[in-house]
Design brief:
3 helices
Length: about 90
């Protein structure tokens, strides 16, 4: 793990919950491209031993860098005028 927290998401939960309605492989590829995914040798997932589970399972190891600012990330949207007015009050 480079630095920070690593979120281990079981592969089935990544696909069914986090990527619901999207192509999970494309999402994982984009996370990898942006440097937010620890990958296995030839896979986007890694095998990880988890406490209470006897055998290693496949997980998507998402880095906490996903919450930080990066050069590839899009600029944040400008707040709507109503939001600006509330902030000024």
């Amino acid at each position: 793990m480079p630095n920070g927290v690593e979120y281990l998401v079981p592969a089935d939960a990544f696909k069914a919950v986090l990527c619901k309605g999207a192509d999970a492989k494309k999402v994982a590829e984009e996370l990898d491209r942006r440097g937010h995914l620890r990958r296995g040798d030839d896979r986007l997932q890694v095998q990880q031993r988890m406490r209470g589970i006897p055998n290693p399972i496949r997980v998507c190891a998402i880095q906490s860098s996903i919450f930080g600012e990066g050069e590839d990330e899009a600029e944040p949207a400008e707040p709507a005028p109503a939001e600006c007015e509330r902030e000024a009050l």
